Amino acid sequence: MIDYSDLIQPDKGQDARLIHVVDKSGYDEWLKTRNARERAHLAAVGFKPDAFVHAILPGDDPERWAVVTAVAKADGLSAWCLAKLAQILPEGRYRLEGQPPGKALFGWLSAQYRFDTYQSNPSVKGPRVLLTTDVGAIAPTVAEMRAVALVRDLVNTPAADMGPAAIEKAAERIAKAHGGTLTVTKGEALEQGYPMIHAVGRAAAKHHAPRLIEIVWGKEDHPRVALIGKGISFDSGGLDIKPAAGMRMMKKDMGGAAHVLALAELVMASGLPVRLHCLVAAAENAISSDAFRPGDVLKSRKGLTVEIGNTDAEGRLVLGDALARAGEDKPDLIVDFATLTGAARVALGPDLPALYVNDDALADDLMRGGTERDDPLWRMPLWDGYADLLETDIADLGNAGSSSFAGSITAALFLKRFIPEGTLWAHFDTFAWRPSAKPGRPKGGAALGLRATWAMLQARYDRRGKGEAS
């Protein structure tokens, strides 16, 4: 297991190779400062100051080489501008010439993530260590990277090893490590108290039985924040079975649960002054003689009845019960994460989570957090004009829209029915997956929206050191 705290160290003048950061606008001036041998070498290798391009600068002896790398803006480093170097450079210590790494610290760590649990003979590169004079940035950057790595690990793990019981185990570890109280509801109690979670998961084998997992932490007089995650450990589609191509990556359908567990650990480890209520609705949407059916009518925890139009629209069902439970404690804020709709991916692709918010100021805080952390979001409309698409003849609402239009919006509108009036709420329809690698962002499980949400929570609730006691 990687110890990310070893990969960033305080700069105390240790011996380290230099990384020169340049951009197109400043490259010619920088080049004038180099010696004739370096200029000749860069000309010979055809170096151009294009993003993610780098070259080795020879030193006075074979071991005294340095690196030059091109970025979009040398005076405003992004999280990802050094990530490619962190993936390909030899092990050793490095420092930037003339500036601290800033946000690029995170990408340096992220690039060295690996998931090799199932490899018989994994290839392991030695650590690439980045030095920084900004010592105060080290601990929070490492904490965020550990959260992102947790999301990736949980999502990358195959469903056979990451069923509802394994998700519970992950929650138990987090609660125990940070003094949280863990409560798990399953069996008859789940059927009575959370009927939609039970219905979605009842077809699964006993060792993958559905459950509601809750962690409560923090002082009771602090603002109550509820984090809710969709934990569908595998989604066959149920009786409305998915085609093979659509089912292939459905181990990632618990990506929402992975996000909120990682966020919960950030909240608890940092001592954020909130009363945290983390809820994970964990189930496997399987197929058996006991599977719930199209046309069934389910009663929800809130009392609303839901006609099943499609058993593959199960995520909103389990979230509905979890949202209702969270709302009973009158939280200051509810945030949910879910790999909810293919429609969001059609609209926004794999990189951008679809964000639905019922308050403009909260939306602004989240968008600002995404910009600060290089964790982009895209706000979508909670357009009530489409609410009629969820109408049904025999129940309070249907779980699948009557039209193929606006699928992500109607899913969000379904969830909105379970939010108490006047409660701040944000919903992330996230992919939790990268279909192809980018520098610092490997193919596989991905934390999308997590760091933006953490920035929002810190800005809203962390008044320590700002004249207010915790």
Question: Would you spell out the secondary-structure blueprint of this structure?
Answer:
Layout: E1 8-10, E2 17-22, H1 27-32, H2 36-44, E3 54-57, E4 66-70, H3 83-88, E5 92-96, H4 104-110, E6 128-132, H5 138-156, H6 164-178, E7 181-186, H7 187-193, H8 195-201, E8 211-217, E9 224-235, H9 244-247, H10 255-270, E10 275-285, E11 297-299, E12 305-307, H11 315-327, E13 333-338, H12 342-348, E14 354-357, H13 360-373, E15 378-379, E16 397-398, H14 407-416, E17 424-429, E18 433-434, E19 444-445, H15 450-461
Parallel strand pairs: 1-6, 2-4, 2-5, 5-6, 9-10, 9-13, 12-16, 13-17, 14-15
Antiparallel strand pairs: 3-4, 7-8, 8-10, 11-12, 14-17, 18-19
Helix pairs in contact: 4-5, 5-10, 6-10, 7-8, 8-11, 10-15, 11-14, 13-15
